[in-house]
Specification:
alpha/beta; 11% strand; 5 strands; 10 helices; Uracil-DNA Glycosylase, subunit E; binds iron/sulfur cluster; 53% helix
């Protein structure tokens, strides 16, 4: 289970994690990688995307999702109205497994504390799980196709499940699946933003009315508003 700690207590930062990842020798993937890929994005980020592991292009550049799968992801994000710069993108394993094999369980476990620290710092509203490896590693899920497009809540954190963008490179149907799921994610974040703006305005209105009532006596402010409304008719 992931333990969240406030940033000021841990004195942790995304830069600190990235530096540690780049020098990490905790598992055998450190021997074959060219560059570790800690992840990319700014604080604050309402959405965090988590994939499986870096591929060839990512290993060469030290950045996540910059190859063909990255292009498929960028396109789906763009169609969903989610700017790539507004999300944080990373992987379960921060180093490329040879021949792009799935990271072994012990490699996933060795790398997990970096991911947990990133999640703790970013505190995203929704984590978007990209593909089966991330799904099984984070939530013990079996099949993204069975659960895709669903928002699940676990230990107070919400997750949206979708396919890995690599599946969408050559398959038009999978491309639509990815776009549909990311659109849902974009709509969900927008809805929450609207609700929070609405509840902030109601709080402001309530505070304003209370302030006026304190100054003018109970009920006077309400009568003033009613009078104003009547005079408009
Ligand atoms: S995959 Fe993770 S644990 Fe393994 S060497 Fe890279 S950063 Fe370290």
């Amino acid at each position: 289970m992931m333990v969240r700690m406030p940033q000021e207590i841990t004195n942790d930062s995304l830069e600190k994690i990235a530096t540690e990842v780049r020098g990490c020798l905790l598992c055998k993937l450190s021997r074959s990688r060219k560059n570790a890929v800690p992840g990319e994005g700014q604080l604050p980020a309402k959405i965090m995307l988590i994939g499986e592991a870096p591929g060839k292009n990512e290993d060469e550049k030290g950045q996540p999702f910059v190859g063909a799968a990255g292009k498929a992801l960028d396109l789906a994000l763009e169609k969903s109205g989610i700017p790539r710069q507004s999300v944080f993108i990373t992987n379960i394993a921060k180093c490329r497994p040879p021949d792009n094999r799935i990271p072994e369980p012990e490699e996933q476990i060795a790398c997990r504390p970096y991911l947990d620290r990133q999640i703790s710092l970013i505190s995203p509203q929704i984590i978007c799980i990209l593909g089966n490896t991330a799904y099984s590693s984070l939530l013990g899920g079996k099949s993204v196709m069975a659960d895709r497009g669903k928002i699940l809540k676990r230990d107070g954190q919400e997750y949206l499940i979708t396919i890995h963008p690599a599946a969408a490179i050559y398959n038009r149907n999978f491309r639509s699946v990815l776009e549909d799921d990311l659109s849902l994610l974009g709509q969900e974040i927008e809805k929450r933003q609207k609700n929070s703006v609405h509840s902030r305005s109601l709080d402001n209105l309530e505070g304003y009315t209370q302030q006026r009532e304190q100054q003018q006596g109970p009920g006077k402010e309400k009568k003033r508003i009613m009078k104003k409304k009547r005079s408009k008719k």
